[in-house]
Amino acid sequence: MWRVSEFAKLGRIDHGIMTSLAVFTGYVLNVGFVLGRMSLYRLLMGLISAFFLEVGIFVFNDVFNINEDRINAPDRPLVIGTVKVREAVIFGISTLCLGLFFSYVIGGDVFCLALCAVIVSMLYNVGIKKYGFLGNLIVAFSTALPFIYGGVLASEELMYLPTRIWYVFFIAFLATLGREVLKGIVDMEGDRRVGVKTIAVVFGTRAAVMLASLFILIAVLISIMIIPYVHNVLLYVLMLFFVDMLLIYSVYILIKKQDISSARVARKTTLIAMGLGIIAFLLSSI
Fold first, then answer.
1. How many Å apart are CA 235 and CA 211, to the nearest integer?
2. Which of 88, 212, 231, 259 has the fewest CB within 10 Å, making it most exposed?
3. Beta-carbon neighbour count of residue 125 at 10 Å?
4. By the 8 A CB rule, do 245 and 220 touch?
5. Cβ atoms within 10 Å of 99's Cβ, excluding its own
6. Could you give the CA distance from residue 146 to residue 143 in angstroms, rounded to a whole number?
7. Cβ-Cβ contacts under 8 Å for 257 (sequence gap 6 or more)
8. Pick from 117, 144, 135, 7: which is nearest to 65 by CA?
9. Using an 8 Å Cβ cutoff, are 150 and 174 in contact?
10. 125-150, pLDDT tens digit by residue?
11. Which CATH number does 1-157 carry?
């Protein structure tokens, strides 16, 4: 069981669960909570594929970034040796193959999205991360993509997704982009040593704080703009209040202190807000 927990930590199981929840949210945003309009088989296959893909991508993130983790995250399984690199590679390949297989049995558009996510994420893991902001954009795209993935699961047509799903995609994209710029502040020492050119490393902490705050505040603005497009306005607005207050609070503490400790607190706060945001989007479809 100890070994299982170490592999779970390596694959960020919690992120896999959140990704599957985002896929489910995208699905429900498209068809609503109407069993007669749901294909439970496609939905189940989609949730499983998204979970395995997320786990595999995170495994290879640790494999390729072990040097940075020795400084920025010394408690990671590969760093402390509780999981060997060879074991991680086998585990990562297995989970990615499972994720792609389950997406393939669903259909063409879904498989293409899954393959796109794997290719882009692996390019990030292999080397694009070192380009700083470009890497931030890729992570933000990959994090927001599950909402589109879920929408396509429901409709099988990427080009005809409801407007609200695209709004949700951009909200998740911008909020994640802000968090990734903040991560550059938290990881500045390790990134500088290994040559990762984040906004914080190249332009300084203040520039990173201002840019991250801008992205987060734009995400808040779009979350308000989406109100006319949701089914259940009351539930959405009630939940949205707490989500946006958390996001605004994270911006407040960032601008007030502009240091590593405030960036670390803001990242945790925005993660909570994003989790609650997924619930808000789900409730909006009831």
1. 31
2. 259
3. 21
4. no
5. 25
6. 7
7. none
8. 135
9. no
10. 887 888 889 989 999 999 999 999 99
11. 1.10.357.140
Residues with Cβ < 8 Å from 93, sequence gap 6 or more?
56
- For residue 2 the two structure tokens come to 């100890």
E strands, the chain, in order: none
- This prediction's pTM: 0.90
**Cβ-based neighbour number of residue 206 at 10 Å:** 12
pLDDT value of position 159: 63
Look at the alpha carbons of 57, 59, 60, 62 in this order and tell me if their dihedral is positive or negative: positive
Residue boundaries of the structural domains of the chain: 1-157, 162-286
| HSE-up (13 A, CA, CB side) for residue 201 | 19
- Tell me how far apart the terminal alpha carbons of the chain are, to the nearest angstrom: 39
Which tokens go with 125? Answer: 């893991």
Closest alpha carbon to 279 in 242, 225, 250 = 242
Q: Place 34 in a pLDDT band, splitting at 50, 70 and 90.
A: low
Give the CA-trace dihedral at 164, 169, 175, 178, to 10 degrees: -140
- Give 40's Cβ-side CA count (13 Å radius): 3
Pick the CATH number of 162-286 from 1.20.120.1780, 3.10.50.40, 3.40.50.150, 2.40.37.10: 1.20.120.1780
**What sign does the CA torsion over 10, 66, 143, 237 have?**
positive
Separation of alpha carbons 69 and 66, rounded Å: 5
